[in-house]
Amino acid sequence: MRIPSIVLLVLFAHTAATAEVAVVAEPADLTRVTLTRVKYDSIGGWGEAYYQFEGRVWARWETDYPQAENNFAKRLGELTRMHTARRPALRRLTDPDLGDFPLIFMSDVGYMRFSDEEVAALRAYLLNGGFLWADDFWGDAEWASLERFMREVLPGNHWREVPIDHPIFHTVFELEEMPQIPARSFAGRGPTTAEPAWVHRYPAGSLEHASMRGYFDEAGHLMVIGTHNTDVADGWEREAYGQWYFERFTTQSYRLGVNVLTYVLSH
Asked: Mean pLDDT over all residues of the chain?
């Protein structure tokens, strides 16, 4: 029997609402470094707030989760002396124990939507010494989405591009450029590493240049970074998806991740 398209769309919407990763919020283990993913809401419907990939429906917030964090935590323990938690944490910005985590991570933020309570909670978290890393958002429209949000969180502050001579690029590994990591699905063996415009929010604009942009506190320390036109977490998640991808992209993702975590914990 041929199922009408409208029925399929309703089924996909229902699946998206119920297929998010179910994780019990365990108390923070303050003796270990716990990678912490932020769960947020997104605007739009199919193809915006959620999408289908590898046989399941994903909400935007859970892109690469939890395999990216699982792999990265393991590599942190191997490449540094950090003692990492066995599983990543999952939190809303309004969760009362958010301050127990020195770094929180958001992915695929190009369609995100936040409440006034979440804006206020993130502002308090950052002003109390927390650190936010936003990753995997490409092009002009997705950048504008994050920028609008951060103008509310830290009014009067402004994004600045983080230069390659900043200590965050040299804490452990010496990085000569901000790496552009495409999702494994879009990675080719040629010289181009940008993802295609059609998979990102319109208008995409330029996708060619990867950058790290940041908010700095009054002492000049980074408190927020956005890794734009790059998908660092996919490099972690897809480390076993072919030797050439590992050597070309995953190694760069781990080098940058180790540097960021080391910077956060030492500043």
From this structure: 91
